[in-house]
Known about the structure:
Blueprint: H1 5-19, H2 33-53, H3 72-99, H4 108-136
Helix pairs in contact: 1-2, 1-3, 2-3, 2-4, 3-4
Amino acid sequence: MSLWLPAVAVAAVISVxxxxxxxxxxxxxxxxxxxxxxxxxxxxxxxxxxxxxxxxVRVGGFGGGRGGGRGGGRxxxxxVLWAVLLATLHGAASELHQALLPERTFELLDVLFxxxxxxxxxxxxxxxxxxxCRRARNCGG
Length: 141
């Protein structure tokens, strides 16, 4: 359960922000700032969901079948799909919730940016884990 806590925490932060009539928007204003926020928050959600669904990052767990990893490449593909799907469903649910609030609206484009953010996190997760593996010099294959 402890691996799921970061994902639950990120999802909770997103849920709270989506329930606020006018969520905080720190920093300078720029075009599509709202969409950038969706990308960043859902990249964090996608990352934490991937980490949890793979059972954490194990140093010896990279081998697409050659040197370990729970199920090799097939398991990682499934973890990627689940992470992006769950993040996208959370984004859609948040937008539906916003449609019920007087000062908020449903935006399909927000759901698209949520999904893209979660998808962008997946290769970044893999690269980060691969770098950790190389630093430890024990990549299992």
